[in-house]
Structure formats: structure tokens, C-alpha cells
Design a protein that fits this description.
Layout: H1 2-6, E1 12-13, E2 19-22, E3 25-35, E4 43-45, E5 49-52, E6 59-61, H2 70-80, E7 87-89, H3 92-96, H4 100-103, E8 114-117, H5 120-130, E9 133-137, E10 147-149, H6 156-166, E11 171-175, E12 184-190, E13 193-201, E14 216-218, H7 224-239, E15 244-250, E16 254-259, H8 266-273, H9 277-294
Parallel strand pairs: 6-7
Antiparallel strand pairs: 1-3, 2-3, 3-4, 3-5, 8-11, 9-10, 9-11, 12-13, 12-15, 13-14, 15-16
Amino acid sequence: MLAAQARGHRLYHYLAPDLTFRDGRVLAKARPVKVQKVQGDHFAFGEPELLDLGRDVDVVWMRQDPPFDLSYITATHLLERVQAETLVVNDPASVRNAPEKLFVLDYARFMPPTMITRDLAQVKSFLAEHGEIVVKPLYGNGGVAVFHVGSNGANLSSLVELFNASWVEPFMVQAFIPGVAQGDKRIVLIDGEVAGAVNRIPGAGEIRSNLAVGGSAAKTELTDREREICAAMGPELKARGLLFVGIDVIGGEWLTEINVTSPTGIVSIDAFDGTDTGGLIWDAIDARLAARAAA
């Protein structure tokens, strides 16, 4: 938003419940907003306006935090209807078809051993095979409800009962990667190309490295394996219209998630590397707009 504002763009903010479909048009009750890099005083809203997302705006950013629920899915269907007139980033159909912990299965060769299930017997068998596991919700975010289960399987049955009672979806189980103690790297790709990375170090007594739950950020470089991962998925991200993506890699080699909904990390990347990732994102958007205008 800061980069867009610096380029002279007018900014508006709305949430998925503010969308309306009427008479063949997609409308949003949105508030004009100005932003500044001042912690605790970083935005100011104007009075709400009713915008026609096909006629009144040039770009719609779909940047909604999970849960990836029916409200989110409905928003993708509505925003698909404006794409002939307005660029939507990331592409709503591709977002809908690429939930972070399922899309990543297309690149299973780079992942730690992984299972998606609701079956306790399967989880026990997986634990017996791999010794230590991590259990997490399929549509969670920010490191919430991520559990490490040791080889003795203490409380595993209760944990599976809790997950099955709390969510209608299956959950994800992965072999525990000890390398997480050295960090969980967030790599940002813009239109399929690497823009930068930041290493997220777990806090004391934690396996979760998410900055939202106390992880700390550190400057980093990509390993050869990480470059291989990015090269493998970059063309597909670009082809799908997934312009702004963050992937997570543990221990320099194990891919765990592909974040297409609301990836974070660019503030830390720019602070460590002296880059302007927001500007790079808008360069890519401007290129997409120019290509649409020329078509």
C-alpha cells in the first residue's frame, strides 16, 4: 500500500462481507485510506463510497487472511466476474484452487513426508514410521494450533479428537524436521521470480517460527535446493496469475507451504536487504496492466 501510494494511486479498503452483486455488477462498500509508516498510527480512513469494481478501479487486491472458508470462496467467485474489466491480484480462481497446504502437494518431491487425514489409526502408523510428527490445521495461519508430537505419542488420541471436533476438514501431519530450530525461511516470489527471503527463528521452547507467535527475523540467502524449488514452481505461479506468493522452506531444503492468500515478510526482507519489494510488486502489476491494455 505504501508503494502504491508513493506512485500516486488512490487506495480503498473493503472486506469480503462488503461485496454486493447486483444487476450484473460487483460492488464494494469501500473506504478511501491513506497509509504511513508509523507504528500505531499507520492508516486513516475516509467516508465510505460505493465502488463498481469493474468500472471504478484499475486493480483489486485480494488479500484476505485465512480461514479459507465459504466466505473466502464466495469472494473469489464474485471477483472472477470483474476480471474482464479489472485486474485482480492474485487471480481469484487460482487462489481458490491453491489453498496453501494443498497446492503444495503438487511439489511433494520437495516436501517432508506428509499425510492429510482424520483417521487416528493412520496418524499412529505415521508416527511409528517417522518417530516425531507435527500436526496442524489444513486451513490455519500464523502458526495457530501447530503441535509437535514426540515418539511416545503422548496425548495423540486426544489431539486427534480435538482436531476432528474443531474442524470439519482433515488435518495435516508431517514428519518433524529438526532443522526448524535453525529457522523456517519465507521466500517471496513476484510473478514467478524470487524477490527476497527472510529466515524466521523460533522463540525459546517453540517449534513455531511465525513472527506472529514470537519468532524473530534474520537476514538470509537462498540455498541451491531453495533455488531449485523456486525454479520448479515459478513458471506455474506466473501462468496461474499468482503474482505475490510466499513459500516456506525448513532447513534449507524442505518445502512446507505455498502462501497465496496474504503472504507476509516483505517488511523484514526490505529492512535486511535494502530492497523495495512493494515497488517490485507494483512493477509486476503495471506490466500486467500494460499487457491487458495492449491485448
